[in-house]
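so i finally got all the pieces together for this one. its two components total, 710 residues if u count the protein bits. some of the lines might not be protein, just check the labels. i wanna see the whole assembly predicted at once instead of chain by chain like last time, that was a mess tbh
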Amino acid sequence: MAVLDLQDYSIFVGSCREPLGHFLKERVFSRIFVLVDERTALHCLPLLADVLDSAAVLKIPSGEIHKNLATCSTVWAALMDAGAGRDALLVNVGGGVIGDMGGFCAATYKRGIAFVQIPTTLLSQVDASIGGKLGIDFHQVKNSIGVFANPGAVFVDPAFLGTLPPAELRSGFAEIIKHALIADAGQWESLKGRNDLFNVPSEETIVASLKIKQAIVTQDPTEKGLRKALNFGHTIGHAVESVSLDGPNPLLHGEAVAVGMVCEAFLSWKKGFLAQTDLDEICARLLYWYQPARLDPSHFTDYFSLMRNDKKNEQGAINFSLIGPPGTVHINQYFSEEEITDSLLFLNDKRRLQG
Amino acid sequence: MAVLDLQDYSIFVGSCREPLGHFLKERVFSRIFVLVDERTALHCLPLLADVLDSAAVLKIPSGEIHKNLATCSTVWAALMDAGAGRDALLVNVGGGVIGDMGGFCAATYKRGIAFVQIPTTLLSQVDASIGGKLGIDFHQVKNSIGVFANPGAVFVDPAFLGTLPPAELRSGFAEIIKHALIADAGQWESLKGRNDLFNVPSEETIVASLKIKQAIVTQDPTEKGLRKALNFGHTIGHAVESVSLDGPNPLLHGEAVAVGMVCEAFLSWKKGFLAQTDLDEICARLLYWYQPARLDPSHFTDYFSLMRNDKKNEQGAINFSLIGPPGTVHINQYFSEEEITDSLLFLNDKRRLQG
């Protein structure tokens, strides 16, 4: 069991049963509610059954398309109908959708009740669980409505990862790779030797990745500056992900971020931050691991309209976080539409060569 | 011009044109949006025209029934369609609905943009403008979804009060009276001599009232304890207001709070906090000023169901903030349903005698 202490709360990595039980005994809550989706109700809740046996279960449908105001309304209404007071607790058991949306529901219900995050996907364990970003998708823009608020505690239990499909593990690895590329050359060295990303990572790998994010969000909790570093791969990745969700082949978040990292590594090279050899190696590994589909140029207009609505933008310009030599990062970088288009075509070109 | 400094922001009381102009010059915002309703667009916006001439105007329908998620969605969508970034500013010009809902929209748009409050009713000037409580009505419960977040500044300009109907002024006075009763015996002494509450109060009266609320919210911004003092008259008042909104004679907030203060003064007497003579005097003044209608016993069940959902409750019990001798307060007081019913009947009885 590793414990990472942040300013207001702790992240417990390892079996969650004991520390969760301790947390629930230590703090006094009038009522405990557990938010799950159809999948975590089936695969994850049973692992917590006796620790949470006094809790009322709120179940919502699975999937990003339900991360919206309508689902929040059902959660708020359920809390209200149950007479939940401000001293109630909401335990969010699930992936990023459950954590982001459940956290947002808790942070806005009666102007804020306590909540606990139990992330059950690799992606949410190494990324969404830490840093207090909560929210929902709105008006076709991901996480465009939300707040910053910290949970009472986070329990990262690798036991949940055993039930994940391989593609979900690979998706989660994208954030581990991103953390390594922006802040930990050593972890990148060890990651790049992997033949595939379909295995559950060790607790040490998870802890190392969490520590990178912890160090960054502690210095800049509300993303005024340094925290933007975590956006590497995400400016383009979010746009590619959003567009794919409306099509026949929706991408997982990490799959889209892998695409974004290839394009934004190109932009990093373009700015002179990244050496040609590093660019080649990073792109070769990402394309090999993720085997992305070609980006359809007929979607580029949609990408730009989504990128212009990115929360990190200032004065209307599209904001990028780029990398230098592995383990280093450059925030607040800007490009012309032409250069950004080049980076998208670069991916298409590379994957053609790779294939 | 009086300036009250709170931890993160200041409240400017007096003509707002100069300090608002100064604020907009001092801080850099990529875009400025002004939220108004149909009424403030007509009566208040013209007074700010040249100070806000570069701002985009967002107009929503007037009235508490529009303080809901649907209206928030139109505000968020308008901001998004205009490409508003995190460095945009929302200026809320209006009464409590505009301030509470506009503030909530700003605090949740892209996880929070800056906002400024320009309250234009007496009620919002002495109450809602201060303390960072934001939110909307949901599931028939007032302000049940929201957050705590502080504005960049508040501009309390008595010039706006000149356009208010007399009933709106009287409604605002209810919060001034409440502040006096819980914390300022001297102000109560001077208020109780008023023949009616249909005139614009002096700047001094407004400042004195704001200072009471400031002192309380500074000590307890998120309502864990002391801030509950401000709830005097509101446990019953909110319920009476909510029920009235569904009927043919909707009450203004202050009119309902006046009813709540009569009932809760009775409960204060019942607990032995308030002397009979004080109870008689307070009730006589409130009934004379507000001339409330009889509370229909067929609504009592609805009152109780609403009171049980009050945000201040803990462990499911209905929480009251009561008064002692004018200028003193007792928080976290509880009663049986029978005693609460007695307090409702007390009002009916008193107004019968009064009439």
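Chain A touches chain B at residues 30, 69, 73, 76-77, 80-81, 83, 85-87, 107-112, 133-135, 138-139, 141, 143-148, 222-223, 308-309, 311-316 (CB under 8 Å).
The longest strand of chain A covers residues 141-148.
anyway lmk what u think
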